[in-house]
Write a structure and sequence with these properties.
By secondary structure, the chain is of the alpha+beta class. It has helices at residues 7-17, 34-43, 55-64, 78-81, 84-91, 109-119, 138-152, 179-191, 257-275, 312-315, 323-332, 370-374, 376-379, 414-425, 441-456, and strands at 2-4, 26-29, 46-49, 71-74, 95-97, 127-130, 156-160, 170-171, 196-200, 205-213, 218-219, 225-231, 235-246, 285-294, 297-304, 344-352, 366-367, 383-387, 390-393, 396-399, 405-411, 432-433. The radius of gyration is 22 Å and the shape is globular.
Length: 457
Amino acid sequence: MGISYGSRFACIAECLAASEQRVRLFIADKQRNPFNLRLCEQTGGAHAVIPGLRVDGIVEFAKKHQAEIDFGILGPEGPGIEGVRDALERETGIRMICPTQAYFIERSKVEQRKLIERAVPKANPRFRIFDPADFGSEEEAKKAFYGWLDEIGEEVAIKPDAPATGKGVGVWGDHFSSREEAFTQFFWPNLQKGRVIVEEKIEGEEFSLQFVSDGRRLLPTPAVRDYKRAFDWDLGPNTGGMGSYKDRGNLLPFMSQRDWEEALEIGERIHEVLKGREYNPEVRGVLYMAYIIGKEGVKVLEINSRWGDPEVMNVLPLLKQDLVEICFQWLEGGLKRLDFQELASVVVYATPLSYGGYSTYTGPAEVRMEEAERLKQEFGDRLRLYPGSMEVRDGKYYALGSRTVACVGIGEDLTQARKIAYSAVRKIDGPLRHREDIALPEYIQRSILKLQRLRVS
């Protein structure tokens, strides 16, 4: 059974359906995703729309098909934070590939920083936790905040403790350019709701690793670079991710072998502290680590307990092994290795015009994908199209409010993979837009030169 929202799970579902074993897909979805609907029909499973992906609705769907479901996989983090694994395993006995609620690490950014501090302090930026209970007035809070800026400088990131999908997070140079703006627009409004982290902003280049944990061992997947900003050359507000790329091997063009090894060590240490004993099935799932390489080495930006979106689409289509067989090993605590094809992959998202604040377009939202689909005759499995925030009505596709469809190009190198992805995204007909600089050679070269400068400074 899959719990789905967006292109991320469409990719997971396709990889499950490609198994040599007989697979029937049962998907609890946030909307009538046409890709998931088709896969459920083709495999003889079932599809259900669960408004808001409520845990009780997911459990009710699972109970209807309990005897036909061997295991479940979680896509988005929301139901995981709300305890979907705990509820499903308690009420249906269906084993889930995601952590229990207690181990869903994105529930608290404060606890993340504390975990990293226990496991590998060098991976933390300098940070301070502010608790509203410690201050009797706004003036007291301001004095403490300004005192911390005096100590580490004004170039900071301000983060609310609770998960907020990026809302409420403020970063120097992006959202504020003075300590007064930082306090009035981000620190004080967040502090009135709960704890706040203020940490130094690190200059460098970002990447992510998606580790797989069976509660005993931790296995890495290749490094991926995500493009969070809404517009080309990293302009505009942060989004869920406009695209991403993976190079042929484990490393990205701007990474060194030392960066890779340091990232692996950080992940392993965090996993050891997180699980707490030799075998802890409650942590079973994905450990998503967002890193940044700066002049002091590799630091952790954030940790999540699920596959990345779009990053999962860079790696799962390249998995050499049968994903269903991997899932059974995952559930039994018997993971041994993950092997990936030595290929590059590029993901480009087509999004509504309004996504990221580009416009307030409210016209027809029909999307036609026939021309993009026809490109599969030329590229075969080197092209993947994964509908995300899209639903089917009366046989037609309609874009909803978030990222509409992901185009994945797979090639012998980044140039070839990029060409395939962009060939497809430009053929999608509808009121959509996309970034033009995903894996652009000039963008990659900028990253390489930036790190070269930082490493010698």
